[in-house]
């Protein structure tokens, strides 16, 4: 592996990296701010708000192995990935503009997070040679970390100056951005044979 190999990484790899970075912009900061958000908007006490907020990661902990098994059995990673983004987007729309029971919203977000994570991260190994995988995953995490560093400052600024409604609008924008870049990834991949959204049967057939 040489550093110069990075310039040969495909457009699909960079789209996966950017989509992942944008997707997590709406997740981690939301959980960090979630307890106060649920207290402020829904009038829940601290314990109730904390219980609601913790559902995102608790649900993901339970469902990730289940979705992982399902994706291994079925394939179609891109379809699962897009479904996860859409669920997350829907969750933030409900949180921003309705008073839907917050448990419903965080369940949607937790399932969306679980679907996205279990479907998206394995895609890196499909678009990068095996001898470059360590570098590739390192780059994905670098892009993600850069996004989080800027996001934490921006989220704090929005909460302090504009409030939680505008923060939710920001999270909706991030989710929509991830959906757009994922759609571009899907289009690019489809033009090259659709390797990222093959079913398990199709993958096994290609290995023969």
From TrEMBL:
Localization in the cell: Lysosome membrane
Gene3D superfamilies in UniProt: MFS general substrate transporter like domains
Keyword flag Acetylation: no
Source domain of life: Eukaryota
GO CC aspect terms: lysosomal membrane
Major location category of this protein: membrane
Pfam family, one: MFS_1
Molecular-function annotations in GO: transmembrane transporter activity
TM region positions: 12-32, 52-71, 78-97, 103-124, 136-159, 165-188
Role this protein plays: Lysosomal dipeptide uniporter that selectively exports lysine, arginine or histidine-containing dipeptides with a net positive charge from the lysosome lumen into the cytosol. Could play a role in a specific type of protein O-glycosylation indirectly regulating macrophages migration and tissue invasion. Also essential for liver homeostasis.
Sequence similarity: Belongs to the major facilitator superfamily.
Protein name: Lysosomal dipeptide transporter MFSD1
Species this chain originates from: Dreissena polymorpha (Zebra mussel)
């Amino acid at each position: 592996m040489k550093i110069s190999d990075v310039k040969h990484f495909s457009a699909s790899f960079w789209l996966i990296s950017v989509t992942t970075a944008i997707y997590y912009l709406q997740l981690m900061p939301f959980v960090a701010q979630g307890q106060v958000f649920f207290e402020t908007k829904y009038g829940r006490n601290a314990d109730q708000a904390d219980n609601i907020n913790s559902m995102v990661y608790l649900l993901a902990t339970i469902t990730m192995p289940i979705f992982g098994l399902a994706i291994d059995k079925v394939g179609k990673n891109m379809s699962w990935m897009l479904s996860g983004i859409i669920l997350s987007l829907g969750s933030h729309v409900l949180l921003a503009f309705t008073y839907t029971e917050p448990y419903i919203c965080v369940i949607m977000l937790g399932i969306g997070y679980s679907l996205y994570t279990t479907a998206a991260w394995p895609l890196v190994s499909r678009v990068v040679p095996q001898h470059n995988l360590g570098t590739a995953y390192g780059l994905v995490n670098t892009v993600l970390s850069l996004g989080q560093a800027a996001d934490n400052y921006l989220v704090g600024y929005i909460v302090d100056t504009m409030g939680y409604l505008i923060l939710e609008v920001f999270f909706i924008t991030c989710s929509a951005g991830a959906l757009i870049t994922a759609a571009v990834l899907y289009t690019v991949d489809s033009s090259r044979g659709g390797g990222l959204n093959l079913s398990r049967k199709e993958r096994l057939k290609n290995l023969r």
